[in-house]
From TrEMBL:
It comes from the Bacteria. It comes from Peteryoungia algae. InterPro entries: Crypto/Photolyase_FAD-like_sf, PhrB-like, Rossmann-like_a/b/a_fold, UV-DNA_repair_photolyase. It holds the Pfam family DPRP. This is Cryptochrome/photolyase family protein.
Length: 509
């Protein structure tokens, strides 16, 4: 009897555990485009298009290897529009006797999958996702007994465990972390290198037409679709990054430039998260160029830390904290998400820039996600559920296992310090130092009150003031609280009044 091997949209790796023992003689691979996955949040059009096109290309590759692939398109009239429904149809049509899957990346689906064996009436084997470099059990073991979790210690263990950038048992260069060298403001006129844009084949063209028709009310447009949709195309982007871009990755990691959405970032997150690139391969490629002397250590170590450290760490936090994690709201934030997050219509040049990149590319680089849109949402006390839903919908690399800890934990401090040791709160002064947005803004980052004052400034002080009870004891904020307490009470009052005004008019600033 045959077996069904399920491959989800973000599992497009030939080495996937669910395919490990797939046999062209007896296996049927099932892949399905379904409305339940395409609409549980209102994903950006480019995100759905990227994933559907990559899924269709992956199915063709499997067929090329001799597999029978049952691929259900979204517009198939028989499509039940749910994964369980498609499994049930595939079982009935094929007479297969069992299902093999790889664990998925979101709690809601994982709960559903646990019930499949009972509801489908056949054995359903769910295998570990070994594309990750730390299993959930290993992460659980690592965090056991630790009162405070710190990415840095996890990262050092991962460096040792996978023997990355090591000399004997020591880190190459003598230090584990070169972050202090990676905070350069942008040089005048800084521009990122020109990126590869992939030609659209018939598969992509037909996906784009379908998305345009069926998801017209979702964010974005498909006009300039440039994503890689095969492993080979993703590989060519990685190659360009390693050769031409990585050497300056460290220097400009935290820089922001108006009209330069990509700068020196790798743009590989969507590909790694969907399975077109494997994290261990990316890490080894980056490590090799340091050993060959082709890129400086601050760049290579900084890049590797994001993938071997942060990426694995946030996944461990997600799976060991869920399901309660999604409901945390440490700072009791409750305002609705301002309209500008959907339209980019605001006089704040930095917000318009970061949100404009998001609408155009389903991408915005890390520091814009964290210090512009994330920071603003935290300072303005926006309901974390609304903020997290936005981040999950608008980025082409977003799945809850990675989006939620980054948004709720890192950007909003909504988890009260599980992810980060202090809120990443910053005023306009930080954005002015790290970007060229302020020069073109109607607001002035040096002013705190008055009609021309940068909204980040009053909101920053008001945020600290509003949350004194929860934050003032944090030693990493003590200098800021001391400055606030020393401030003239008249000035404090003016700031509070200005912040109240701003908070009452978030849809028109
Ligand atoms: P680069 O800057 O070139 O970094 C290299 C790689 O490191 C990335 O491709 C990614 O795989 C990994 N990486 C870097 N930072 C992180 C991080 N904090 N967590 C996990 N992996 C990381 N990343 C996602 O993949 N999906 C998300 O939904 C997502 N949501 C985020 C939400 C917020 C509020 C914040 C602050 C960050 C979020 N990130 C998310 C992390 C990070 O911003 C993106 O991984 C990065 O911007 C992707 O662009 P890049 O490939 O050019 O990354
Ligand atoms: C994100 C996504 C979308 C938009 N559509 C599909 C789909 O139609 N079929 C599918 O198998 N997967 C899709 N995905 C990816 C899943 O949502 C993802 O596998 C889960 O969220 C778990 O990470
Ligand atoms: Fe952003 Fe304030 Fe600078 Fe304007 S002045 S770009 S709102 S930080």
């Amino acid at each position: 009897p045959s077996r069904i091997h399920l491959v989800l949209g973000d599992q497009l790796s030939h080495s996937l555990s669910a395919l490990a023992d797939a046999d062209p003689e007896t296996s049927i691979v099932l892949m399905a485009e379904v409305m339940s996955e395409a609409t549980y949040v209102k994903h950006h059009k480019k995100k759905i298009a990227f994933l559907f096109s990559a899924m269709r290309h992956f199915a063709e590759e499997l067929r090329g290897k001799g597999f029978e692939v049952r691929y259900v398109t979204l517009d198939d009239p028989e499509n039940s529009q749910s994964l369980k429904g498609e499994l049930a149809r595939a079982l009935a049509a094929s007479g297969a006797s069992s299902v093999i899957a790889t664990e998925c990346g979101e709690w809601r689906l994982s709960e559903d999958m646990r019930g499949w064996e009972t509801s489908l009436g056949v054995p359903v084997e769910i295998r570990e996702d070994d594309r990750f470099l730390c299993s959930i059990e290993d992460f659980r073991e690592w965090r056991k007994g630790r009162k405070q979790l710190r990415m840095e210690y996890f990262y050092r263990d991962m460096r040792r465990r996978h023997r990355v950038l090591l000399e004997g048992e020591d880190p190459v260069g003598g230090k584990w972390n070169y972050d202090a060298e990676n905070r350069k403001p942008p040089a005048e006129g800084l521009k990122g290198p020109k990126r590869i844009s992939h030609a659209k084949d018939v598969i992509t063209t037909s996906v784009l037409a379908m998305i345009d028709e069926r998801f017209s009310d979702h964010m974005g447009s498909l006009d300039s679709f440039h994503f890689a949709v095969t492993a080979a195309q993703a590989e060519s982007e990685l190659q360009q990054f390693i050769d031409e871009i990585l050497p300056a990755f460290g220097d400009y990691q935290d820089a922001m430039v108006k009209g330069e959405p990509f700068l020196y970032h790798s743009l590989i997150s969507s590909y790694v998260n969907a399975g077109l690139l494997l994290p261990i391969d990316v890490i080894r490629r980056a490590e090799a160029v340091w050993f060959e002397g082709l890129a400086p250590l601050n760049a290579v170590e900084g890049f590797i830390r994001q993938i071997l450290g942060w990426r694995e760490y946030v996944r461990g936090i997600y799976w060991t904290e869920m399901p309660d994690y999604a409901g945390l709201n440490h700072l009791s934030a409750s305002r609705p998400l301002p309209q500008m997050y959907w339209t980019a219509k605001t006089d704040m040049a930095c917000m318009a820039g970061a949100i404009g990149d998001t609408i155009e590319h389903a991408y915005s680089h890390h520091i814009q996600r964290l210090m512009v849109t994330g920071n603003f949402a935290m300072l303005a006390g926006i309901d974390p559920t609304e903020v997290c839903e936005w981040y999950l919908a608008v980025y082409s690399d977003a799945y809850e296992w990675v989006e939620l800890p980054n948004t709720l934990g890192m950007a909003l401090y909504g988890d009260g310090g599980i992810m980060a040791s202090k809120p990443y709160a910053a005023s306009g002064k930080y954005i002015d130092r790290m970007s060229n947005f302020c020069g073109a803004c109607r607001y002035d980052p040096k002013l705190t009150t008055g009609p021309k004052a940068c909204p980040f400034n009053a909101l920053y002080w008001d945020f600290l003031d509003r949350n004194t009870e929860k934050l003032a004891r944090n030693p990493r904020l003590s200098n800021m609280y001391a400055t606030w307490r020393r401030m003239d009470p008249f000035k404090q009052d003016a700031i509070r009044r200005h912040a109240t005004e701003l908070l009452g008019s978030l849809n028109s600033i």
